[in-house]
Amino acid sequence: MNRQSRSIHAVRGTLGRQHGLTFVELIVVVAILAIIASVGWPMYQSQQLKGRRSEAIDALTKARLAMDRCYSDNGQYSAGCLPASLQTSKNGDYGITLQIQSGGDAYSLVATAQGGQAADTQCNKFYLGNLGQKSAQSKSGSVTSKVCWAQ
């Protein structure tokens, strides 16, 4: 082989090589991304549910104001005190119900998770009474007030 043919082979060797990822390298990258996603996705969903809890607290606060206005006007609480516009939270993640007690002298408002928010097993229901009493329940029925109202 002469000098010229060696230099041609040397040039072809470097020019003929492809740059980029091999299939194995690509599979390794995809596997790493899958592991990161499998850890990150549940954390993301959990934070989404937790973030929407403030919607329940906001809806209960607005409903309580409406109830207090009604009591000022009528001298008692009644089912008509809670307008239909306040029976669902702003984005529809909570349904608001009213429970009248003591012949119209007391009430409890209940925000129950619905739709996608129903997956929130830790804070499934929020309660707010006419004297400002706050409590919350998990889906299993245990009291989770400190966690849920700590927003």
Question: Can you tell me about this structure?
Answer:
With 151 residues, the protein is of the alpha+beta class. It has a single domain, classed as Glycoprotein, Type 4 Pilin. Helix content is 46%, strand content 17%. The protein is built from three helices and four strands. The protein has helices spanning 3-16, 23-74, 145-148, and strands spanning 94-101, 106-113, 125-129, 134-137. A hairpin with a 4-residue loop joins strand 3 (125-129) and strand 4 (134-137). The chain is elongated and about 90 Å long.
Q: Mean pLDDT score, rounded?
A: 87
Corresponding CATH architecture: 2-Layer Sandwich
Share of helix, binned:
40-55%
Shape: elongated
Write the SSE topology:
Layout: H1 3-16, H2 23-74, E1 94-101, E2 106-113, E3 125-129, E4 134-137, H3 145-148
Give me some keywords for this one.
single chain, 151 residues, alpha+beta, Glycoprotein, Type 4 Pilin, four-stranded antiparallel β-sheet, 3 helices, 4 strands, 17% strand, elongated
Please outline what is shown here.
This protein has 151 residues and is an alpha+beta fold. 46% of the residues lie in helices and 17% in strands. A four-stranded antiparallel sheet has the order 1-2-3-4.
